[in-house]
Specification:
The structure holds 2 protein chains of 2 kinds.
Chain A lengths: L1 H32 L3 H4 L2 H31 L5 H37 L2 H37 L6 H12 L3 E5 L5 E6 L12 H8 L4 E6 L5 E8 L11 E7 L2 H72 L14 H43 L3 E5 L5 E4 L1 H7 L11 H5 L3 H15 L5 E9 L2 E12 L8 E8 L1 H41 L5 H32 L7 E4 H15 L4 E6 L5 E4 L1 H18 L7 E11 L2 E10 L27 H11 L3 E6 L5 E8 L2 H13 L1 H8 L1
Chain B lengths: L1 H24 L5 E12 L2 E11 L2 H8 L4 E12 L6 E15 L4 E6 L5 E4 L2 H8 L1 E9 L8 E11 L5 H9 L10 E4 L3
Antiparallel strand pairs in B: 1-2, 2-7, 3-4, 3-8, 4-5, 5-6, 8-9
Classes of the chains: A alpha+beta, B alpha+beta.
Chain lengths: 744, 191
């Protein structure tokens, strides 16, 4: 930031210095073009500096133009605007400059031309000619005078020559008369000047002229101003072949005439000089004007580039910032260039990005929270034993947890997005569920609660089901959530508990009067049998015998109920299940010769840790139950199988007892383990109930079903040791759903 | 024979035409040259004798005839020769003459700007001839000269444009016709 400020400052300073220098150079150029004394000697240098400035500005402008064209072709943001602005600025600057330039040139040319005029020139020519004529008349007079002087000196005695010469000089009005002999030697001289100044030697032109026998006369300008007439003639010219001396005289031109002639001469020269200088002056002024124009023009063009760059820069920044924001970079902050409207726009942009960034941060925090909540909910739903299914208004599955699939025996989690009635096809349990739910749906009931009884292959399943509407949002329309729980096991447990209570009370209330009844019957028999007649005694004997026998039967029944209700402490020991099964099966094989009892055991059955007495009773009850089911069958067959299996990574011993009897009634298949449920005339109805109770005391699982080929199958799965039991408990606590699925 | 004569005549005409054209196209190029120069000791003063050839260019002639005075400078330098060191200019003398045409008297005026003396001549030739003939010009007093040192003198003539207005100097700056300057003519100072 500091570096940028310094750079900007240096650029501005350089710009100011450059513009100042250019203006100074232009000013100096204009001054020197006007022949200003102080800068005249620097004119060429200043002009060269200006030309260098023009070249530099040209190079800068061309460089800027090239950059602009490149940006324009590459569609750099802001380049079009910059091009338009440059065009506008240049147009605004160039047109007036060119107009001013054109008219200035015209004014210079016509202005300079008006200095000269034909009449003035002709007048000057005439004045010059007039002066010349006037002076020539004097020259002729002086020449004639000189000829007379030469004649008079012809016969003068050389001794009187000086005297005569002085006299003649005074008479003629000459300022100096000198006589030169051979080789231009001065023979005599007379001058109006003080003594001591010798006359000048004869000029070549005088000698040349006299040598050609022609008199010499000339009009000589004087250093102090004015003129003098110089005449020279040959002495002794008459009748003598060899030249004698030369007499030369200087005649002053009258001061007034000389001054006027000087003025005419000077004016004429000045006018001619002005005419001569006219073209160079025009050229020079045009050149100066052109250079000034070029400096101004190129400075304007370059200034247009700089200005447009400066104006467009914040807009370019803004475009870049907007793009960055569009790409999701909300941390973009633009430098505020000034306090004008653009600066306000940029500070508004910065405010906007800051707010957007803050909003995004907040949104992402909220999103994370929602995500965490969702994840928690998913975990809870996954671990929940209650089935939860959310549906769209058209019954399309939106979400479903594992438990829902397990309860309804359909993998609902993989069918999300399909309609529930479509998924139900081919799945009887779900179909029954959908049928019941559809009744409410078709009746437009949105909030309902119902206990459903579904019939499955392995028995009846009782669900409590509740449905409520889900409020819709912008992503989802209004839908439903259906929550259901399998309460079959709970109801079963309640029933078991109720039956246990019944059995305990029955045993307690019935068993007590039985013994007095039996004792009383036996006492009546003992006391009155021998006192009665044979016929009566027979009746009494039979009656008391019946009473005792029935009381015994009732006692057995009450003991059975008592056993069901009373649960002695379980005694876990390791024993060979193989051996136990063989013992029990062999016992029944010996007793029931009419039945075929087939035993299938794995060769490497391990020892199981269990209550051997209870397991023996379980086996007895199951086999006895099968035998009783096959009482009326001619080819009854019982299959007992013992094997090792795995139930959710827990090692279990699986005992299966199957018969080919009539099987369970479909309606009561789920009640076979309830007390006092029996299809046999002799049964107490407690056999399978006790079996189930004992299996569950070992944390085992029991189920009953009918075989397809006829007959019933009861399967027991017992954890093999303490570790397996603990694993079983852990699975039940954490994996109720798997258990349910397995059961399903 | 006839062919040869015709060809020769044609060639001669061609050369003449070319010469005429060349003369017309190429304006007169002036030049300044120092033909001879020497110094002699006279009454304890070294005096200069020199002959210069001064021929004006067409541009200079035009200017002169248009009333523009020409300034001709004679630069004279007395240089002490130093063996291992740069030579030192002991004395410098610049003689400035102004040559002017006066239309009224139709005479060329040569004015010595150093002394103020003035001479007039009927022709430019005689004016330049007079200018180019230097006799007995005192250069340096012998007493000022170190008898142990060696001296050399050099002379140069040049047309000066410094006194002209800027408008003219700009034009002169670019034109070779106004760059009239002789080479240095150099000789040893004899005693």
């Amino acid at each position: 930031m500091v570096a940028r400020t310094i750079r900007r400052g240096v650029t501005a300073a350089l710009g100011v210095i450059g513009v100042g220098m250019a203006l100074t150079a232009v000013f100096l150029l204009s001054r020197t073009a006007q022949n200003s004394e102080e800068f005249e000697s620097l004119h060429i240098i200043i002009l060269l500096i200006n030309i260098a400035g023009v070249l530099a500005l040209f190079a800068l402008s061309v460089g800027s133009l090239a950059r602009l064209l490149r940006d324009y072709r590459n569609h750099v943001p802001g380049s079009r605007l910059k091009a338009r602005m440059v065009g506008m600025f240049v147009g605004l600057a160039v047109l007036p400059l060119l107009v001013v330039f054109y008219f200035s040139l015209q004014f210079i040319n016509s202005g300079i031309d008006t200095w000269f005029n034909v009449e003035v020139e002709a007048g000057l020519d005439d004045a010059l000619e007039l002066s010349r004529v006037a002076l020539e008349m004097q020259m002729r007079d002086h020449l004639a005078t000189m000829t007379q002087i030469a004649d008079r000196l012809e016969n003068v005695n050389p001794r009187q020559l000086i005297f005569e010469l002085s006299m003649l000089r005074r008479e003629s009005g000459a300022s100096e008369i000198s006589i030169y002999g051979r080789n231009s030697r001065i023979l005599a001289t007379s001058s109006d000047q003080s003594a001591g100044s010798l006359p000048k030697p004869l000029a070549d032109e005088v000698l040349l002229q006299i040598g050609q026998n022609r008199p010499f006369v000339s009009l000589d300008p004087l250093a102090r101003g004015g003129y003098e007439i110089r005449t020279a003639v040959r002495l002794g010219n008459k009748g003598r072949r060899d030249p004698g001396g030369i007499i030369l005289a200087h005649f002053p031109v009258p001061e007034r005439i000389g001054a006027m002639a000087d003025k005419v001469d000077t004016s004429y020269s000045a006018y001619k000089r002005a005419i001569y200088l006219r073209d160079p002056l025009k050229r020079n002024l045009s050149l100066t004007l052109t250079v000034v124009l070029l400096v101004s023009l190129l400075a304007s063009i370059y200034g247009a580039f700089l200005l447009s760059r400066r104006l467009v820069k914040p807009i370019q920044d803004l475009v870049a910032g907007t793009r960055a924001v569009a790409q999701g970079d909300f941390d973009t902050q633009l430098p505020a260039p000034s306090r004008d409207e653009i600066g306000f726009l940029i500070s508004s942009f910065n405010d906007m990005t800051q707010r957007l960034a803050a909003a995004r941060r907040e949104a992402s925090i909220n999103e994370a929270l929602v995500e965490a909540e969702r994840a928690n909910l998913e975990v809870i739903l996954a671990r929940l034993s209650t089935g939860v299914v959310s549906l769209e208004s058209d019954l399309t599955i939106r979400t479903a947890n594992q438990a829902a699939g397990a309860i309804l025996n359909v993998d609902l989690e993989n069918r999300i997005g399909e309609r529930l009635p479509d998924v139900a096809k081919g799945h009887p349990l779900l179909q029954q569920f959908v049928d019941i739910a559809s009744v409410h749906h078709n009746a437009s009931e949105t909030d309902w609660r119902e206990q459903m009884v579904l019939s499955g292959e392995v028995g009846r399943q009782i669900l409590t089901c509740a449905c409520t509407t889900l409020p819709g949002d912008e992503d989802h329309e209004t839908g439903f959530v259906v929550v259901f729980d399998d309460i079959t096991a709970t109801l079963q447990a309640q029933r078991d508990s109720a039956w246990g209570e019944v059995a305990r009370r029955l045993a307690h209330e019935i068993k007590n009067p039985l013994t007095p009844i039996q004792l009383s019957a036996e006492r009546v028999r003992r006391k009155y049998l021998h006192t009665m007649s044979a016929e009566d005694a027979q009746v009494l004997d039979r009656a008391t015998h019946t009473i005792v026998q029935q009381v015994e039967a009732m006692k057995e029944m009450v003991n059975a109920f008592s056993d069901y209700a009373r649960a002695p402490d379980i005694d876990l020991n390791k024993f060979s299940i193989d051996k136990l099964v063989h013992e029990v099966v062999d016992l029944y094989r010996a007793q029931e010769s009419g039945l075929q009892i087939i035993l299938k055991t794995d060769s490497d059955l391990p020892n199981i840790e269990a209550d051997v007495g209870r397991i023996r009773q379980v086996l007895h009850n199951l086999i006895r139950n099968a035998i009783e089911a096959l009482e009326n069958s001619s080819d009854g067959r019982i299959e007992v199988g013992v094997s090792v299996a795995e139930l959710h990574d827990v090692e279990v011993v699986e005992i299966v007892v199957a018969d080919n009897g009539p099987g369970f009634e479909i309606g009561s298949i789920n009640e076979v383990f309830d007390p006092y449920v029996t299809s046999k005339p002799k049964g107490t109805g407690l056999g399978l109930a006790i079996v189930k109770k004992m299996v569950e005391e070992h944390l085992g699982i029991i189920d009953a079903r009918n075989r397809e080929q006829g007959g019933a199958v009861i399967r027991i799965q017992l954890p093999i040791d303490e570790a397996a039991r603990e694993q079983m408990i852990a699975n039940r606590l954490g994996g109720n759903t798997e258990q349910r699925r397995e059961r399903a | 024979m006839k062919f040869l004569r015709t060809t020769g005549l044609a060639a001669l005409l061609l050369v003449l035409a070319a010469a005429t054209l060349a003369q017309e196209e190429m304006p007169r190029q002036g030049f300044f040259d120092v033909r001879s120069a020497s110094t002699s000791l006279n009454n304890g003063v070294h005096e200069l004798e020199a002959r210069l050839q001064l021929i004006l260019s067409q541009d200079a002639l035009d200017a002169l005839n248009s009333g523009v005075p020409l300034t001709i400078e004679l630069n004279l330098e007395v240089i002490r020769v130093r063996g291992l060191w740069l030579d030192e200019v002991e004395a410098q003398l610049t003689l400035t003459y102004e040559l002017e045409y006066r239309p009224l008297s139709q005479r060329y005026i040569v004015r010595n700007l150093n002394s103020g003396d003035l001479d007039s001549f009927a022709t430019l030739y005689s004016a330049l001839n007079n200018l180019g003939r230097i006799q007995g010009l005192p250069v340096i007093d012998d007493a000022l000269i170190n008898p142990e040192s060696r001296y050399r003198i050099r002379l140069r003539a040049a047309l000066s444009t410094r006194q002209y207005p800027a408008a003219l100097r700009i034009i002169f700056f670019w034109r070779s016709q106004w760059q009239l300057e002789s080479k240095w003519f150099e000789w040893s100072l004899e005693r």
